[in-house]
Amino acid sequence: MAAAGPGAEAECMRPAHAPCPVGPRPARGVHLTELLVVVVVLAVLVSLALPALGTALEQLQSDRLRMQLHSALNQARAAALSRRRTIGICPSPDGLTCGDDWSHGWLLYQPGHDGSTAPFLHQALTPRRRLAARSTTGRPALEFRANGRSHGRNARILICQHGRAQAEVVVSNTGRVRSQRLDGDSGC
């Protein structure tokens, strides 16, 4: 449709097979009811996803502690090898004394001949709710000799959440550190 004169309607820019619209154009907005339906659907989806997200976050916390412990134990062994002295590592909430829960942090120290200890590195961690890491009974601290070997028998540190074992870090007599996730079926 061509314009007939100055007062004529503007030319329609549609393809030949599509008719030009006649009359007022329809509104292109979103109605409030449509918006509310979308918000409700999103709220339902989020409420269904939150429990799974919480479980995933707890697993990430457990994995993070497992990897940090693995690294710290390797660091203690490397310090013993490089200094050619016995180096100990124990759980420590304050960096001054040894405790029993590895989830609060740890302390690397050099044992003295008189039974004293000289701390040289403290790693403090932000305590996580419902997360605990305990050593094998009777083995609260670990010591690596100058040759990198560990004193005593194998040591095992269990990382637990909600009373279930999530991961473990094991130190063999040779000083080798390994860690793995657990299925969470066994108790702590």
UniProtKB/TrEMBL annotation:
Residue ranges of the TM segments: 35-57
Subcellular localization(s) per the UniProt record: Cell inner membrane
The entry's keywords: Cell inner membrane, Cell membrane, Membrane, Methylation, Transmembrane, Transmembrane helix
Record membrane topology: Single-pass membrane protein
Signal peptide, first to last residue: none
GO cellular component, one term: type II protein secretion system complex
InterPro entries: Pilin-like, T2SS_GspH
Chief location category: membrane
Entry's family note: Belongs to the GSP H family.
Protein name, UniProt field: Type II secretion system protein H
Organism field: Stenotrophomonas pavanii
